[in-house]
């Protein structure tokens, strides 16, 4: 007997006109958890970012995720539809957020923030990297609750019958992605972040790890109907992961150079803790 998906996408209602959706609530939870993780990382002895930096960054990240995610979805996945129905561009509670668009949006706002605050850009992306997967986890749970982005047909015992997918049991591919690009990637990055990693490593691991997880999960997921498969087997999500692979391996290359010639010296204090001291450059 397969699980019949019947989750109400509305979290609660305020009167007949205001509905608070689970999808939106998952974004709120994601931002809160990301903020909490960043606060924790800022307290590590070798962190180059303070509590005040985190409080300032969160607003920029929220704007980057929401604007970039929505614009990316419109451009990458269904531009013709939204040009014909421009008001639907605002209906983010119905879903329709692109990770790759949100990722690009966050990179742009972080670039601005780093320039404004005279911070190293790669060190900033390293700092933010462990916070992103937990947001991906929440987003994919939101997709599952919405009953969207379901997987291919399967007879596995954990298959789910989604209302919008007919009577066919399908892979709960949203949960696969939540586990791989969300929870698993978070645990890897969080473990590395606490080990005083060299500059660029966390950003590289995130890019490569996400691309691998997403490409694998896409084999269980129905492709976007407006595109189908490219060359008979590749999805739009997999194609958009290719630049992330490239960026990740480029960062690994430079990571070795930065490790050999770091901007910081690591100093051990009398109590055994480690701190970073920026080298003076003439």
TrEMBL record:
It is an enzyme of class 2 (transferase). Pathway: Protein modification; lipoprotein biosynthesis (diacylglyceryl transfer). A 1,2-diacyl-sn-glycero-3-phospho-(1'-sn-glycerol) binds at residue 140. Its EC number is 2.5.1.145. It is a multi-pass membrane protein. It is found in: Cell membrane. PROSITE patterns: LGT. Keywords: Cell membrane, Membrane, Transferase, Transmembrane, Transmembrane helix. GO terms for molecular function: transferase activity. The chain crosses the membrane at residues 20-37, 57-77, 97-115, 127-145, 175-193, 200-222, 228-254. Belongs to the Lgt family. Catalyzes the transfer of the diacylglyceryl group from phosphatidylglycerol to the sulfhydryl group of the N-terminal cysteine of a prolipoprotein, the first step in the formation of mature lipoproteins. This is Phosphatidylglycerol--prolipoprotein diacylglyceryl transferase.
